[in-house]
Amino acid sequence: MRRVDFNRDWTCRCLTRDEPAVPVTLPHDAMRTERRVSTSLGEGNIGWFEGGDYEYRKTFTLPAELTDKTLLLEFEGVYRNAEVWVNGEKALYRPYGYTNFYVSLNEYLRGGENELRVIARNADQPNSRWYSGTGIYRPVWLWTAGEKYIPVNGVKIDTLSVDPAIVRVRVETSEPGDVRVEILDGEIGRRRERVRSSLRSPARSSGAWIRRTSTPPV
Question: Given a cut of 80, is residue 86 above it in pLDDT?
Fold first, then answer.
């Protein structure tokens, strides 16, 4: 899958106080815009900031070349209890706030202009023993792929032995078919081994054990 920067042209507004939306570029920590008050429920753990719930919005038009692609949105971090809405439909709820997550977009998108809303809830203080920040505090990426693809993090490599050099390569795919794995030798880029493995069902892993021998590169 290919990754596209999705961090520009957002707005952010506070839902717990009467404040206007402001343009932001992600990543963004909304807590840093708050007042420090002695009545902060999070107290010193969050630097005496007020805490609050925030809404992020982004409108975008899907390019023609992406209309028939598989589209996946990755949020590296939203604090906290994130709700993701696409064109008025709730696409995902993500509790907690310190791990990344993915949203499949295809069933929600339409031709022309699309609207994305992300709500981050952090008014229920106290909820952290240290400064957490609020909002979409890490980057957002749009992942694109064709009908058949290797998912994000779909390739996993295990070192089974150093001497002799043996690695295990596991590949997850969206559709059944053949997977070709090539092992390159250092920065030179010479191909050392090539293995082809067939997958009989989608979303399964193809495992290949590759042992380096004294035979010349293929």
Answer: yes
